[in-house]
Amino acid sequence: MLEALLERAERDAETIELFGLRPLLERIDADSVAALVERGAVRDGIELVGTVPATPTSIDALLELFTDPLLRVAIVDASETPLFVREQPELNYWFLTDGEFDRLREAVDVELMESTDTAP
Fold first, then answer.
1. Rounded distance, CA 17 to CA 42, Å?
2. pLDDT computed for residue 35 by the predictor
3. Are 57 and 48 in contact (CB under 8 A)?
4. Alpha-carbon distance 13 to 7, whole Å?
5. What's the CA gap between 82 and 16, in Å, rounded?
6. Using CA atoms, how far apart are residues 98 and 101, in angstroms rounded to an integer?
7. CA gap 75, 82 in Å, rounded
8. What is the torsion angle, in degrees rounded to the nearest 10, for the CA atoms of residue 28, residue 32, residue 37 and residue 43?
9. Distance CA 30, CA 49 (A)
10. What are the pLDDT digits (tens) for 80-105?
11. Domain locations in the chain?
12. How far is the C-alpha of 115 from the C-alpha of 54, rounded, in Å?
């Protein structure tokens, strides 16, 4: 779902800030951890932390690691305005522009109208 939201956003992702538990993330996908480290993240005995450019490779690696051990993520645009923030595995926030919000509201309204048209 995160990938679809990024593709539909009016703004382009510029950087990814992340913090996670390195040993658990490496069990999930060591290659993805290595890809993020190659782009600037730092790993020590416990943590994977840092800011990396939001390249297709970085985003793919992030999506592979998007599990509970990835504790914090912030995807921001060039003006350092967040597009998406994960504060902990249960708290994920998507920041919409007015245009994105209007399109979402229209889609929800259409979906609601279609669902009530077929209801008995």
1. 11
2. 97
3. no
4. 10
5. 10
6. 5
7. 6
8. 0
9. 15
10. 999 999 998 889 998 988 888 888 78
11. 1-89
12. 37
Residue 95 DSSP one-character state: P
**What token pair was written down for 116?**
């009530």
The conformation of residue 14, written as its DSSP 8-state character, comes to -
Interval 33-73: pLDDT, tens: 999 999 999 998 899 999 999 999 999 999 999 999 999 99
CA angle centred on 34, ends 31 and 39, rounded to 5°: 130
Cα Rg, the chain, nearest whole Å = 17
In this structure, which amino acid lies at residue 28? I
pTM: 0.83
Per-residue pLDDT band at 120 (split at 50, 70, 90): low
Which two structure tokens, joined as six digits, stand for 109? 């309204």
